[in-house]
Structure of Phosphoglycerate mutase:
Amino acid sequence: MYALSSVPIAALPCSRLLQPPLKPSACFQTFFNRRHLITTLLSVFTPSFIDFTLPCSSDLVAEARGLFQMPPVRLVNRYFLVRAGESEFDSFGIINTNPVAKTSVDSGLSEEGKKQTVKAAFKLKEMGACENGCWIWPSITQRAYQAAEIIASVNGVNRSYIVPEYSFLDARGLGAYEGKRLDSMSEVYASDTISSIFKPPPTDDGTPNESVSDVFVRVTQLMSILETQYSGDTIIIVSPDSDNLTVLQAGLIGLDLRRHHDLSFAPGEVRFVDIRSIPSYKQPPSAVYKCLNPPNCN
């Protein structure tokens, strides 16, 4: 047996490790040259299937689908946006956005809301949303999750394809407007048209007070997850309120976020993510609404 040199392999320059073995001199023909031995060991213990070359930077960028930006150059999935039907609180004409109550029975669908959601489910079936399978992503808010179950039932979707979203699809938090009449929402939307960073007045009951830009961040995070997790799939996004969907749609098609409310969703309304899916009476003048770097639309 012959001992190897005490010089560690890692300390040897690559040129020495990769250099072909020298022909042994005549006086040592019966022994391995140390360099020959090291080279032989490397060839034996390095699996041939391992490729140590790194992809070029352009390849890495091309594969980085998680870096989602609005408006997107393209979408790898197709999307349907659904607002859940009327909730019990809606039927009372009361604003309810506190996430603490989002799983309560009072946040569930009213009788009218159930009818609206059934119509939405059949509308999706008519549009062929789930003909080749689909994923349903509802807010964990009671009315949105109930709507997802109805949609799944009508469209023959297994419940395992319902994926509850725990925070990114919460109803927009309206702060001090919590508990007020629904018609006071007009004040919020009037402020939205002035600035996308306007926040409703805060409150001390735990209800967040979110600006349009805050909602934009949430729905962009959601889209980043969906565009990374799936490819070539159909996804139905079910929101408990309109603002999540109007801000999302405005971002996706490059419209000014300050005018998001002009794209408002009625309870139970369904839209395919396409500029042509915006009702004609809500079509915005492009010169006023174009926004290529949301939420900076000034």
Q: What stands out?
A: Confidence is low (pLDDT under 50) at residues 1-32, 44-64. The CA atoms of residues 37 and 242 lie 72 Å apart.
